[in-house]
Each structure stands twice: as structure tokens, then as C-alpha cells.
Design brief:
single chain, 167 residues, alpha+beta, Trna Endonuclease, Chain: A, domain 1, five-stranded mixed beta sheet, three-stranded antiparallel beta sheet, globular
Amino acid sequence: MSGIQQWQHFHTFKQRGEWVELQFMAAASLRGYRVLKPWGDSLEYDLCVEHHSQFLRVQVKAFSSRRGGGYYCRLRHGGSGAQRYHPADLDLFALFILPAEAWYLIPSAHVLVPTPKMSLRLYPDGPPRPGRHTLAHDYERYREAWGLLGKTREELSNSTWERTRKV
């Protein structure tokens, strides 16, 4: 698209979000996963990924707003965007940083347990300045972590497994 990135073409965030969901579905399908899209918008998650007869509930989100050298990612839902997600709502966040074209597949337990985070920052363009946002590096291991789609819900929710083992 001559001089404009594809995601900037959309007139509403809803249209852009639907396009990002399609991007996720295509990327997961190319990696051999089956993707299911529930009808309607009333669930807390956007998609399901089926692998070996197991289903993971995935919430897809896209971000382009930079703050503090990173991209600010809001982990909220609802009409006003004020509601927190809960661990029982979903299994995996698929966060797409639009300008960097980078996917972060983060187990929901990593950001929702013990206290649900309302936002986080990701740094696909490089690490934050020394001494600031040191927890941000913890999310880099989830960049392009497509293999997590082959894990079970129990494996993703086991905080000991996911914090001690490299993806």
C-alpha cells in the first residue's frame, strides 16, 4: 500500500482488530494449527486454537502506541475498556505490535496471576533503557512463541513451568 502501512488503512479500531485476528489465524494455520472463530463478540476471547483435540482460548490484541521507548499494551475489555480479564476467561494473549510486525504469545497466567495486570509494555525495537522497566525483558521470550499453541491449558497455566523454562 503506497507509503501507508496496511493497518493504518482502517477507519475504526474494530475494523483493524478484525484484520489482526485474520493475520493471527493465517499465521497459526501456516504453522499447522487449526483455528476456530466463535460466532459473535460476547465471549472474553476471540479465537480457539485446536491442537491434538485440545482447545486454547486466545485473545488477540493489536497496539501501535509508544510510551517510554516501548509499546503500551492495554489488557482490558468491555465497552469502556475498564474491565480486567480473569484467568478463567482465556489461556493465551496474542499481542501484535503493528509498526514492528511482531507477535507476542503470552500465557494469560503470566499476566493475570496473582493479580491481573491492566497493561504492560513490550519492546520489540530493543531493550528499554538500563534501570527502567526491567520486567519488560521477561516478555521477550514470548516474541513469536508460536510453539505455545501446541501446549495444553494446564501447561500454560502452570506458572512454575512457564517462569522457569524457556519457550
